[in-house]
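To whoever picks this up:

The nightly regression suite flagged AP-1 complex subunit gamma as changed. Nothing in the input moved, so I suspect the structure step. Input below, exactly as stored in the fixture:
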Amino acid sequence: MRNMRGDAMRGLAVFISDIRNCKSREAELRRINKELTNIRQRFRADKTLDGYQKKKYVCKLLFIFLLGHDIDFGYMEAVNLLSSNKYTEKQIGYLFISVIMNSSTEMKQLIIQNIRNDIQSRNPIFINLALQCVANIGDKEMATAFTHEIPRLLTSGDTIDPVKQSAALCLLRLHRTSPESLQLNTEWTARIIHLLNDQHLGVATAAVSLIDALVKRSPDEYKGCVNLAVSRLSRIVTSSYTDFQDYTYYFVPAPWLCVKLLRLLQNYPPPDDPSVRSRLNECLDTILNKAQEPLKSKKVQHSNARNAVLFEAINLIIHMDCESSLLVRACNQLGQFLQNRETNLRYLALESMCLLATSEFSHEAVKKHQETVINALKSERDVSVRQRAVDLLYAMCDRSNAEDIVQEMLTYLETADYTIREEMVLKIAILSEKYAVDYKWYLDIMLKLIRIAGDFVSEEVWYRVIQVVVNRSDVQSYAAKIAFEALQAPACHENMIKVAGYILGEYGNLIALDLRSTPMIQFDLLHSKYHLCSPTTRSLLLSTYMKFINLFPEIKQHIQDVLRHDSNYRSSDVEIQQRAIEYLRLSEICSPTVLATVLEIMPPYPEKQSPLLVRLKQKKPLMEAENNSEPSVTTTTTHTEDVPKFAETAIHLNQQQQQQQQQNGLLVSFDTIESNTHFGESTSYSLPSTITTTETTIQSSKKFLFKNSDIIFENDLLQIGIKGEATKHILRVEFYYGNKTNFNLTNISTNITLLDELESELRLNLEPIKPTIDPKAQIKQSGTIECLQEFRDLPKINFSFL
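Regenerated output under the current build:
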């Protein structure tokens, strides 16, 4: 605030002093209430208050508001101050309006009109006050009201530089708060871009911030800014700091403008014009050269400013990813920072090198710093720097150094911070599979990983171990051997028991001839861990025992005794009890041939994207960019229920999505990345007029022994799913009909036929179905099925369409 004679407002100073001298909260409240009463009376009774008195009382109200008390009057007096021709009175009015904005429509219209009057005035001080108020409020009404005035003010040739700065920053604020309400005409695009060449660096700096925000919304409209940005950057970088006396910060010319220009250029690919690209490369080369020069000052501000420009230049080099010499030079420069005593520099260097490691031009240069990064992992005090070191080791890993990096990460995992252990487990699992030449080495690493950090091994990790073993017959015998050996440890983690239980249940026969791992020894070893496990793991082990009955008939009686034991047969856990009863009954009534069919070995899993990569991206989105440039690890997906019920070994690539689909009423994923109500792309087919489920329905019905929802029919045109929930003898059912084509299915009709005795055994009540299914969409039909008596036949569903 300007120091003007007569504007000291002694009454305000006295009031503030009284408040500060209050000894208690009650005394302060009494003083405030007394002052509010006095101000209210003066506003009501004295209609001849001059500007000075209004300003004084409005300031008191503002101070009271800032103390945390509500203010419900004085708005009109503050608006009246906006009409004053005195700077101090207008300033207080704008300050009050900016801090305490009344939501009254009439009041807001008065404020907008006063702001418009000041913006259209010739007084630059009043214009700046108005622009600051608009930016401080920054709501939808302000953006709509001044969507034309402020751009016009910004691009006008008559506007002075300080006002242009304020106008650019005001537009930026409105764009951030109400982008949908701020409609900029295309006629202003070229004028706004041209502000990059403004002689006043303050205007250029404000304009870069505005253009950077606008580019993110309309990149094609503002692509002309690239050439001007490169030109402006070149003039700054190649000049001496003495050429920018007013904008030199500790011997660094215009560092904020340089950073903003470099950041703006990262919104576009490398320039197509050879001359522009050459000029940009020259700028980046000059910045790297200056980083090698001795410091011109020992003050931290100088190094901070210089490094800010350097790191932003390196980010642009990484973004362009086309100049191998620049990438290698950037990597070497960052390598020097890895041993810098400044923690922030080490952190930023590791972060930037993670991105450099994904480039084919600089990957080898990054690998040269492997030992330095490993030493940082061991000796760094700051946990965030150690985490970045782990990220960099993960990014620089390839087939040539995978064993060394995985071993170092395993060693560090034993003492790593708990906050990063789960992420490290995922990365070790991914790297050990991705670069495994010998899958025996992979299994050794994974079992060691589970032993070291079992509590941080997510289900996706040990699921993946199972998938690899099932899909690779050459390591199944070795997997059974090391799993059996791992179980012999005095302290065995529960995840290790799960892995060993599954592997021995499938491939225990491959090591049964060894006297040290006979069938009975395998069973006794597994069962010795049984009572220490959670109900989920016990359920899996019961399935393993059932598999043993098929693999080793000689211990069948012993396993049946375990199943009959009260701890299983009468368990309080429903899942354990159900498995014990069903498995016992299955082993008693089924012949060896039937058992061999039911309990046959698991088939190979289909290959899909690794769930570990999906999990890692969910935990750390930054790693997504790193993984995009590398070949993905293939993986497999299983069904979630099997016979026997190895539910714990099932894996779904996106369980969260599946749960969300079930909450939304959907049965299954359609293997697309689109919304839950749409399918992926498919080609056009000629449509039959009717589809009838016959054998497909009969086969699908067996699935409902273990689940309450599934697909009962699917072809290239249509997918039909069902979801049911039973309450006593009534089944609430929902049918889902999905259109997999690119055109409408019309004249939809469904009919569930009850043949012969079914008419007296079941009662159907289904709501009408919509006559049309949109392309890539699905519709739902709800209803109930009431069971009147036991039935053996199945209903028949007829579905017709055009």
